[in-house]
Amino acid sequence: MEIVAGLFIDDVKFRKDDPAGPTKIDITGAYFSTQVAEYPVTLTPHLLVLLRAETEDGRSGTVDVRFVRRADGEEVGRHRQPQMISPPGSFFYQLVRPELSFDEPGTIDAVCEIPETGSKLVVPLTAQ
User: Fold this and answer.
1) Domain residue limits at 78
2) I want to staple 66 with a disulfide (CB 3.0 to 4.6 A). Which of 16, 44, 111, 123 is the partner?
3) Residues in the chain with pLDDT values less than 70
């Protein structure tokens, strides 16, 4: 299992133009920063993590997302969930909705990892 992409988003929808055709992903409002009116603030963004598995052996793994404040390296949240992608060669997604507290402007990195394969991606969220 490997991570294909990660984004903070407003919404995601899946559709098929033809019942026998491939699934299309409509992602709206992808962002890496947000404007904040006043601090302190708690944000609850949607993090979309897209996954894929090429082989039967790689279909299962754990999606581990640590939210780390960039300024001091403190872990401020964590999401960990096992996943199974079926069938092999398919894509899958994991939606994570953390509560992220900001006392001042700054960046929190979503460190997304599949420990079983070492696949890793960092997705920043900056509050301005």
Assistant:
1) 2-127
2) 111
3) none
